[in-house]
Design a protein that fits this description.
The longest helix is centred in the middle third of the chain and has 37 residues. α5 runs antiparallel to α8, α8 runs antiparallel to α9 and α10 packs antiparallel against α12. This protein folds into three domains: 114 residues, Acyl-CoA dehydrogenase/oxidase, N-terminal domain (Butyryl-Coa Dehydrogenase, subunit A, domain 1, Orthogonal Bundle), CATH 1.10.540.10; 114 residues, Butyryl-CoA Dehydrogenase, subunit A, domain 2 (Beta Barrel); 145 residues, Butyryl-CoA Dehydrogenase, subunit A, domain 3 (Up-down Bundle). It is α+β, with helices and mostly antiparallel strands. The strands form three sheets. Strands 1-4-5-8 form a four-stranded mixed beta sheet. β9 and β10 form a beta hairpin. It contains twelve helices and ten strands. It binds flavin-adenine dinucleotide. Flavin-adenine dinucleotide binds next to β1, β3 and α12.
Length: 385
């Protein structure tokens, strides 16, 4: 099937699925900060979360372009793909660097939905964006790894069977480069919780099911190691472009949703005997937000094309994430302003989506760190940190 047809069909199928989960579904969950189990179940059932898993392991063998269309449409429908997006990019680490035995054991079950791989444990409270300084250790002893340390902002851990954990297996003082000595472990959360792992939810300004994790001498079998010991940072970097492109697509979905809603309201709301959208002071910000969302989308499409051809796309993936996150945030602000007081009312969903899209200025990588990447790696300016 031609790519354009495939994308059109995919968009329309995801839109249909999302119709069963209207604004009120997400609003009610937001109020009580509950996980969208029914939605994630339907998405899994439909095979969408297995988009990137190769057919030989039970998935659809689609590209990042198609995966990004799925996530974009979820956000464009008023939903929040943040509840389940991680499976798409964490799975890539297992696919590219896992052993054949690990792939055979896990990927078909992830594809069918029997197992969820929704949690990715990188960030720590004391080191933040400075990933190579992370303090969680995994030490080999008597045929197991003993994991000690703490992670923060690890999302969906309570709704995932598996966690990809980044931990230090060689102390930073014993390695030549600080990027060496980090490893990735695939941890079965079902057996870990209560036996050395404690998960504590963190309540945030939006419904994101995020948590902190405490590892207190958790024993992990050595066959949980993904790839080679000490190479985890390289594997982590490998997955980041996929993550950036997928998040950019979600932001494009958010941006289009905000522009749609602002446009509709601006046409309907009559004040001073005219639709507010007749005033240039109201229509220009919406038009500008639309322009910026569409421009960001072009960079996201370009990054996805490069990624799917196996070509370098670090610069494009980072630029797509930055442009799309900025565009969705601008569109969110415009939507609130256009709605006047109603922009703040829960029943209009603008304030909910406003809170949700704000996250992407900070996570999974903050805007400053993207600018630092572009300055250093694209423009060859001196490293700033
Ligand atoms: C809701 C939510 C969900 C998340 N989910 C996950 C998850 O599932 N897994 C996971 O591992 N992490 C997750 N994160 C963590 C997220 O990736 C981090 O919050 C993010 O990378 C920033 O790290 P930090 O919060 O420690 O900020 P810090 O690193 O402390 O930075 C604070 C501020 O300082 C700026 N800053 C820092 N250093 C520099 C510099 N050198 N130059 C310029 N500016 C700088 C940053 O841009 C930022 O604005 C999540 C975070 C949130 C809020």
């Amino acid at each position: 099937m031609a790519t354009a047809d495939l994308h059109r069909d995919l968009r329309s199928a995801v839109r249909d699925l999302c119709k069963a989960f209207p604004d009120s579904y997400w609003r009610d969950l937001d109020r009580v900060r509950a996980y969208p189990d029914a939605f994630v179940g339907a998405l899994t059932e439909g095979g969408y979360l297995a988009a990137l898993i190769p057919e030989e392991y039970g998935g659809h063998g689609l590209g990042i372009a198609e995966a990004s269309v799925i996530l974009e449409e979820i956000n464009r429908s008023g939903g929040n793909a943040g509840a389940c997006h991680a499976q798409m990019y964490t799975m890539g680490t297992l696919l590219r660097h896992g052993s054949e035995a690990q792939k055979r054991a896990f990927l078909p079950k992830i594809a069918s939905g029997e197992l969820r791989l929704q949690a990715f444990g990188v960030t720590e409270p004391t080191t933040g964006s400075d990933t190579t300084q992370l303090k969680t250790t995994a030490t080999r002893k008597d045929g197991v790894y003993i994991v000690r340390g703490q992670k923060v902002w690890i999302s969906r851990a309570e709704h995932s069977d598996l966690l990809l954990l980044v931990a230090r297996t060689t102390p930073v003082d014993d390695v030549k480069k600080r990027t060496d000595g980090l490893s990735i472990l695939l941890i079965d959360l079902r057996s870990a919780v209560g036996r050395g792992l404690t998960i504590r939810p963190i309540r945030t300004m939006m419904n994101h099911a995020t948590t902190e994790l405490f590892f207190d001498d958790l024993e992990v079998p050595t066959d949980a190691l993904v790839g080679e010991e000490g190479q985890g940072f390289r594997y982590l970097l490998d997955g980041l472009n996929a993550e950036r492109i997928l998040i950019a697509a979600e932001c494009v979905g958010d941006g289009r949703w905000f522009v749609d809603r602002a446009t509709k309201y601006a046409k309907e709301r009559v004040v001073f005997n005219r639709p507010i959208g007749q005033n240039q002071g109201v229509q220009f910000p919406i038009a500008r937000a639309h322009v910026n969302v569409e421009a960001a989308d072009l960079m996201r499409v370009r990054a996805a094309e490069l990624f799917d051809r196996g070509e370098p796309c670090g610069a494009e993936a980072n630029m797509a994430k930055l442009l799309a996150a900025d565009a969705s945030w601008e569109a969110a602000n415009v939507a609130v302003q256009t709605h006047g007081g109603f922009g703040f009312a829960e029943d209009y969903d603008i304030e909910r989506k406003f809170r949700e899209t704000r996250l992407y200025q900070v996570a999974p990588i903050s805007t400053n760190l993207i600018l630092a990447y572009i300055a250093e790696h694209v423009l060859a300016l001196p490293r700033s940190y």
